[in-house]
Amino acid sequence: MNLKPYNPAEDGAEMSFGDRMSYSDYLHLEGILNAQKPLSDAHDELLFIIQHQTSELWMKLAIHEIASAMTAIRADNPQPAFKMLSRVARIFEQLNNAWDVLRTMTPSEYTEFRASLGKSSGFQSYQYRAIEFLAGNRNQTMLGPHTHRADIMTMLEEILAKPSLYDEALMLLARRGFDVGEDANRGDWRSARKPSEKVLDAWEQIYLAPERYWELYELAEKLVDFEDYFRRWRFNHVTTVERVIGFKRGTGGTSGTQYLKKMLEIELFPELWRVRTVL
Questions:
Q1: Does domain 42-278 have CATH number 1.20.58.480?
Q2: What is the average per-residue pLDDT within 135-163?
């Protein structure tokens, strides 16, 4: 038995970083790890802060991947978008897992620091709003919580001025010869689109002959996969909130679980869910 302590330097590991970039330097860890500023002495406030901060980091990556997928689809090269959309679905799987950690906090523990939140609320997350707008849920009333920040409003308005992820998919169908009606080029991208029988018929043709339209069929399934995990995230949000605060109003003034349950009714890609019924 060799009792000599293992020395990674003997295998070539770098051990001195006085004059070169380290792991901490590359990731700016001091900034990240010093970004938690609890406003109370409650033990569980740190959990609450970290859960929401890490969720925002995952959402930042989701926005990056969705935007890149849209660029690929717009360029008539949807295959790279498949990988990106798969990654978005996995990101929302991670976001779902985060609720499991938060649910270890009891109502009594949350009550210890809830007042410290003031009127701040996850409802005000501008990255979550960006994801909804990018995916196609373009409810312009949701701009309200962000009007005090010109930079955020500019970012969200830029998203609303362009086609959504689903718009890009439908325009791709049009370029491939499918009749999708006005969705071939709606023009008024700010407004929420309405479900279309022509779009439903187009997806039905694709699902009835996947071997013929494999690329479009795979795109459809990647979109459904994304929305599947997105719906689960919303559902887990509702159950976590109900478990912790019951039917109290949210800190941001919403009706709490009642508001979140209304969000469960929203469909991002409605025809892709309806096509399962008509097949």
A1: yes
A2: 94
